[in-house]
Amino acid sequence: MSGFVFNEKPIQIERGEGAYLYDDSGNEYLDMGASYACVPLGHNHPAVDTAVREQFDDLTYVQASYPVQSRTDLYELLAETAPEGIDKVWLCNSGTEANEAALKFARSATESSKIVATMQGFHGRTMGSLATTWKNKYKKPYEPLIGDVEFVPYNDDDALAEAVDDETAAVIVEPIQGEGGINPAETSFLETAREATTKSDAALIFDEVQTGMGRTGSLWAADDSGVVPDMITSAKGLGNGLPIGATLCRDWIAENYGSHASTFSGGPVISAAAEATVSTIVDEGVPAHADEIGGDLREEIEAELGDTVRDVRGEGLMIGIEVKRGSNRLLKQLALNHGILALPAGRSVLRLLPPLTIEREHVDEVVDALVDILGEDG
Ligand SMILES: *Cc1c(COP(=O)(O)O)cnc(C)c1O
Questions:
Q1: Which residues carry this modification: N6-(pyridoxal phosphate)lysine (predicted)?
Q2: What is the CATH number of the domain that holds 316?
């Protein structure tokens, strides 16, 4: 083997369908991580598969400067479904690129440079996005990164208000921190971010790479917060497993974005995948389903495991369970003894980001498995 970056897991996945993955020995796994929220509609959803195949038959790729129907449709759909006032769309290939673009657009449109970000935040791994990511382990080997980034404690309204000044180009924040441990923002924190950025003519960026696409119980977490930012970044679930990112912005940003481009921006096939994903999520009421089933899952985990875990938090189907003894052993036991794949968020949090289409029976399966494992540990 010559790949060197990933520590590969000892299970070779060969096939997926809905909430399930199958390995090369035919074992079935309930996918409670959706490979980091990347398949909100479940694996190999027929609407997305069909859209991709049809587009692929007609045209795989043409340079982005020619209009293509699938991309135009996606632009319109994203503009229509984004919060009021956000209707310009830039497409790219990943979450970090979506944030990279947002940071560049903010610097250009405001003619300022300082970026305010949050402790424990995660925004990606290219030089700009990485500079706004909190964890030193990800940054140290690559320094110097872009300068002029100030970090404030998440949910500290006063620190945030104080950090934003006339030199500030943007505040970038996840409405619920994912990688940082499933930490939901208080509404007042997002409101403070809105007020402070408006007062200083800075841009407010919601990084919805993980929270978007219905995961938190509404299409965008912004919809729930009542706070409308100037930009929303998306990726992960946007193409239901195919690589696409988006930076959605208000007019005042789009009018002065500077000069930015990417060869593969919104290619025909990937745009067809994302259009099918978003329209299915919206038409089938997937966010409301995620809200309901996620509420059930959180309630039952709390009821059955309240004493054996430290905390259960999140919104919709973005759930973190803070455990007492570290999440690694629990993840291994879930996979090997119960056929359930989940994710960590740091050392002590078990992260659940399942397909948003999971049903009651899947909730029961997960709760039973957790009770079985954690009940024993006492
Ligand atoms: C995963 C993630 C990113 C980075 O996305 P990539 O596609 O891996 O570059 C950025 N922000 C948040 C909140 C994420 O969860």
A1: 236
A2: 3.90.1150.10
Residue ranges making up the domain that contains 336? 13-44+285-375
**Residue corresponding to tokens 């598969």:** 49
Entry pTM: 0.97
Last residue of a domain, one of 218, 253, 283: 283
pLDDT in tens, 137-165: 999 999 999 999 999 999 999 999 999 99
- Helix/strand/coil for 227: coil
207 lines ligand 1 (CB under 6 A): yes
**Angle 268-283/46-58 helices, nearest 10 degrees?**
150
How far is the C-alpha of 374 from the C-alpha of 238, rounded, in Å?
Answer: 34
Q: Indicate the top mutation candidate among 97, 138, 210, 216 to test ligand 1's pocket, ranked by most ligand atoms within 8 A of CB.
A: 210
Tell which residue, 133, 141, 174, 178, has the closest CA to residue 155: 174
Structural domain total, the chain: 2
Q: Among 268, 283, 298, identify where a domain stops.
A: 283
Separation of 377 CA from ligand 1 center, angstroms? 33
d(CA 323, CA 246): 34
Q: How far, in Å, is the centroid of ligand 1 from the Cα of 98?
A: 9
- Does residue 208 have its Cβ closer than 6 Å to ligand 1? no
The model's pLDDT over 105-139, given as tens digits with 9 standing for 90+, comes to 999 999 999 999 999 999 999 999 999 999 999 99
Q: Do 293 and 276 belong together in one domain?
A: no
CATH of residue 218: 3.40.640.10
Atom of ligand 1 at shortest range from CA of 36: 1
Span from the CA of 120 to the centroid of ligand 1 (angstroms) = 13
Q: Is the CB of 96 under 6 A from ligand 1?
A: yes
Residue 5, in any domain of the structure: no
Q: For residue 362, count other CB atoms closer than 10 A to its CB.
A: 21
124 close to 271: Cβ distance less than 8 angstroms: no
